[in-house]
TrEMBL record:
InterPro entries: HNHc_6. It comes from the Bacteria. This is Phage protein.
Length: 224
């Protein structure tokens, strides 16, 4: 259970008792603990999520010539494995939540990025306003707008005239992945007009050092 306090802090109270001895074994008595948590959207899975799921399956079906029923069962099984046995349904009578459906969609989108499946039927329905999709576009150098590969990493935060990009700590900069054409366009018409034209946020995301190095962004990173 989580609660937002008046000062803006978040108080997290576990449902089951936590072994303090085990925590001390892992972290010691004076170290900070690192936690992962998720804000769950308990609303019923949306029809738009179902449309996106089957549109993406259609893209994969066309690319690999694989029956859609097989793909559906494959991703449902992958979801069950990923969630330690949970089942999912996107039918009208589903009890699955928006968050459950998002996990399933993330698995499908991951697959398409990893296997270079073009986004066609599902392109207009893609969650391009979500950080997860923006991260995957950067990670795989795919244009956030049109899906073209070998995209540039566009710096939302202006670096300044004469600044050497190789000497910048890019972990402190907001970036987004854009193909050469859309990279040129956002610089020509400006971020506000670009955002209104393509209905996407252009505030960008921050990437960790490991991801930046993997996609070939050279910079001045601590410890290098």
């Amino acid at each position: 259970m989580a609660k937002i306090l008046d000062n803006g802090d978040i108080l997290i109270r576990p449902k089951t008792a936590v072994s303090l001895d085990h925590i001390e074994t892992l972290y010691g008595s004076d170290e900070l603990m690192w936690l992962d948590f998720e804000l769950v959207d308990k609303r019923k899975a949306r029809a738009q999520q179902r449309r996106l799921f089957f549109a993406l399956l259609h893209d994969i079906e066309e690319h690999f010539i694989v029956p859609q029923d097989f793909l559906k069962q494959m991703f449902y099984t992958q979801y069950s494995i990923y969630t330690a046995g949970k089942e999912i349904s996107l039918s009208d009578s589903t009890k699955s939540t928006v968050s459950d459906a998002n996990v399933l969609l993330d698995l499908v989108i991951d697959f398409m990025f990893e296997w270079h499946v073009p986004f066609k039927a599902g392109y207009e329905l893609l969650p391009r306003d979500q950080e997860y999709y923006a991260f995957q576009c950067c990670r795989h150098r795919v244009c956030t707008i049109c899906g073209r590969e070998r995209a540039d990493i566009h710096h939302v935060d202006v670096l300044g005239s004469g600044m050497n990009r190789n000497h910048v700590d890019h972990t402190k900069r907001h970036v987004m992945s854009l193909c050469r054409a859309h990279h040129s366009e956002i610089e020509q018409i400006g971020p506000q007009a670009f955002s209104e034209k393509y209905h996407v946020p252009v505030n960008g995301i921050k990437l960790d050092v490991e991801t930046l190095k993997k996609i070939g962004v050279i910079g001045n990173y601590d410890g290098d």
